[in-house]
Amino acid sequence: KExxxxxxxxxxxxxxRVLSAFVLGEVARRQxxxxxxxxxxxxxxxxxxxxxxxxxRSLRAGLADCLARxxxxxxxxxxxxxxxxxxxxxxxxxTGLAIxxxxxxxxxxxxxxxxxxxxxxxxxxADEYWTVVRAFATLGDVTAAREWAGRARVRMTLSARATxxxxxxxxxxxxxxxxxxxxxxxxxxAEG
Length: 192
Hints:
Elements: H1 2-13, H2 18-30, H3 34-50, H4 59-69, H5 73-86, H6 91-103, H7 107-119, H8 126-138, H9 142-159, E1 173-178, E2 181-186
Antiparallel strand pairs: 1-2
């Protein structure tokens, strides 16, 4: 509620503030008010066009989610694809599009899109794998969920540190003062 109020005041001061419009859309969507979220997201997209190079994660995916909930599936698909084009490994874009495809019985496409959370991300780690496993399980594709859980175990095992760091070496030094001269020598441990 407070975030939405700050965003409104920010937009009153400057209508071209992308993140302020985005926040209004997100707040409305999360509260189930897609009829308010859609215009806010569209304002954010319009403002984003004025700021070349600006990418806002989940902007298009949030709009797409609301459009899908309103039964505008073709438009939702376009927005999910726009999110993925801007951010190829977007979890929100890919999981949302996979859910949409699965609801249309486009299972092979759903699988391909969802796998992209990992395959489109050269730095995919445990979080990305978990997203894919959880999404497949949620979608009822238990076989794919098990397959990706297995891939995650292999990936995480292979990326774990294979070598143990060498033990710490202690360098001992002997110091002595002989006459006016200070002498420093490496100490040699006694053999026992």
